[in-house]
Each structure stands twice: as C-alpha cells, then as structure tokens.
Amino acid sequence: MRIIRFNPSEGTVKLRVETFDDLWAIQRVTFVGDSMTAESRRKFKSSESDKGEFKDVMITLTVEKTELDKNAGRLRATGKITHARPMEYVSLNSYHTLNVAPDDVVTIKKEKWPDYMVKVLKDAVSDSRKPRLGLIVADDEKALPAYLLGYGIKFESEMYSSLSKRMSQKDFTAAQNKYYDSILKEAKQMDVDTVIIASPGFTSQDVKKYAADTGATKGSEKRIIYEAVSNAERSGVYELIKSDKVENLLHRERIRREFKLMDEFLTGLSSDRSKHGVKAVSEALDNYLATKVFVNDSVLGDASIQKVLATAEARSASIEVFNSNDEVGQQLHSFGDIACV
Fold first, then answer.
1. Which of 134, 148, 169, 325 is most exposed by smallest CB count within 10 Å?
2. Is residue 98 a contact partner of residue 36, using CB atoms and an 8 Å limit?
3. b (16+ CB within 10 A) / e for 309-338
4. Would the pLDDT of 131 be above 90?
C-alpha cells in the first residue's frame, strides 16, 4: 500500500492499493457512514430506448456495507452516491458498489482518524515493504534467489554452478559441493525467518542431503523448506508463490505474532493482570493498569469499542488489532473481542 496523501483536518486519506492484504487493511478502517471515492463503471442510457454503454466515472458514496471477496481479489463497498465526475452519467442517491482491487486508487473520508486506525494503514505500508519469505529456485546450472515482498517479487543475482561433464569426478564433486554451499549460504543470510529452496529434478533434495551430511545449516535458527518446482527461472518463482504450500506458510507467519500476544494475555489471567471485555478494559485504562490493548478488527466500528480505544490512546497504551477470522481472533472473541495487559 502507498499513502498518497493524508489530510487530518479534512479527514481524508488517499491510498494506492498494491496487494490483496491492503484491501483487508482498508476494510478494517472503513465503517458505515464513511465516505469512499474511487473510479468505477456505470451503464449510461441517453434515452429509454437506448441500450446503454458503460462509462468510466469517479464516484463518491456513503458506505453502508463492505465485503472482501478473496476469490475475485476485490473489496466491495456499497452505498448511496453523493458525488460523481462527470455528473451526467449517474443519479445522486442511487445505490452503487465500488469494486476496489490492487493498482486502484481510493480515498476514504471520516470525521476523525484515530491514531490506531492510521497505524493500521501505516503498518500495511510497512508490511508491504518487508521481505515476507525467501525463495531460491535452482537446478544443476544455476540458482535464482528472490524475496517475496508485500507488493511483489524482488529478484537477486543468479548464482552459477560452473559444473561441466568434462570435469573429473573429483573436480565435479568439489564444484558441486561449492555450489551447494553457496545456495545454503545465500539462504542463511537472507533477511527472513523462512526460506524455500525449490528445484526441478533432484537438486533441492540433494542440497537438503548435503546440508544434513555436512551440518552446513547447523546452529541456524532459520527454517529452510525444500520443495519441487518446474524450472529455475523467474517463472519458477512465480509458480512457487502461487502454490498452496506458500499460501499456508504465509498465513502461519502472519498470525505468529498474534499468538505471542495472546499467550501474554492468557498468562496474565492467572495473576489478574489481564482484563477482557469493554467494561473491565475501560476500568483498567482509567486506573493506568493497562499498557497493551488487543481488539478484533470486526468490532472497530462499534461506538463503545471506539470509546475504549480513544482512552487507550490518551493513556499512551499500544493498540494491537487482530484479524477476527484467524484462530487468535476467534479466541479473543470468546473474551469479548477486546482485552488488555
């Protein structure tokens, strides 16, 4: 995500969407009554007999409902149109649905942007720039390292094996071991927690065996996963990131931090340091007994929750917003959707 412009006095923020995760972040801070502006298409008829044609229109509507469509990769925001450019293609106060997708620009306006809502957007910007996963596709000739970032793929320089069938067996083995060492060294120094090494044929498994036999990755806290892919080109990297394996891995990485925070809350229950529910959290904040507040994104639009979070900001308590659809968010739901330590 990229924040193009933020004007607190007007209550507007203009964003460029880069990934599907950005859409999730936008939904978390867009509530009933907010204004949303984006480019859309409307069917325009010049007369009753006219079959009509679709026109590109910049539409502003008052949000009544939002829906995140994972299959289509879109955020749908439905409400009544309050403004449009050009005006002749729309009827004011008629209902319309904005379909926001990656590469779109959207403006959201609300009466006030609390700091924790701005943080949701800024975190999305930051997360899109951080490497989320290291990838190395390799065959007998070369290896191509890459980083999966929130907004796309960053490719690194290729590494070559210099192997030749004309080498003696001894020289071939030495060159091969050197090649495997370079792949594992690259994996260990990548600025991520997890690296996937994938290959067509047996290269990835040979690297895995070499690492086990030589202890090349011993002592490293980095997790290295070995997978298969059809080629060691850029297309192989794209093939890998579209796989169910990577999708499931990224999902687990994203909620790992939430699990740590939830463990902190659960540990505090035994000593009565942790509180949960609107009333208990509010009282803890009033008495300066809370430094962290955890809240589910599904209740951010609730007036009572917003009042508690405003107090948290006034008391300089950190606010962590959980994904209510994840296991941790569902666990927090059983504690009233809001808690503190």
1. 169
2. yes
3. bebbbebebebbbbbbebebbebbeebbbb
4. no
Q: Per the domain annotation, does 205 fall within a domain?
A: yes
Task: Measure CA 230 to chain center.
Answer: 27
> What is the DSSP code string of 274-292?
-EESHHHHHHHHHTT--SE
What value, to the nearest 5°, has the Cα angle with vertex 237 and ends 232 and 239? 105
Angstrom distance (rounded) from CA 341 to CA 329: 16
Does residue 10 sit in helix, strand or coil? Answer: coil
pTM of the model: 0.67
Residue 220 resides in a domain: yes
Same domain flag for 20 and 57: yes
Q: What's the domain count of the chain?
A: 3
Provide φ and ψ at 281, rounded to 5°.
Answer: -65, -40
First to last CA, the chain: 31
Residue 109 reports pLDDT greater than 70: yes
String of b and e for 27-50 (b: at least 16 CB within 10 Å)? Answer: bbbbbeebbbbbebebeeeeeeee
Is residue 125 domain-shared with residue 136, that is, in the same domain? no
Angle, alpha carbons 249-253-258 (nearest 5°) = 140
Among 108, 129, 150, where does a domain finish?
Answer: 129
134 and 145 in contact (C-beta within 8 Å)? Answer: yes
- 115-129 vs 20-28: helix axis angle to the nearest 10? 170
Residue 255, pLDDT > 90, answer: no
In a domain, 248, yes or no: no
Cβ 265 vs Cβ 296: under 8 Å: no
The residue among 256, 24, 25 whose CA lies nearest residue 132 is: 256
Name the band, by pLDDT with cuts 50, 70 and 90, for residue 46: low
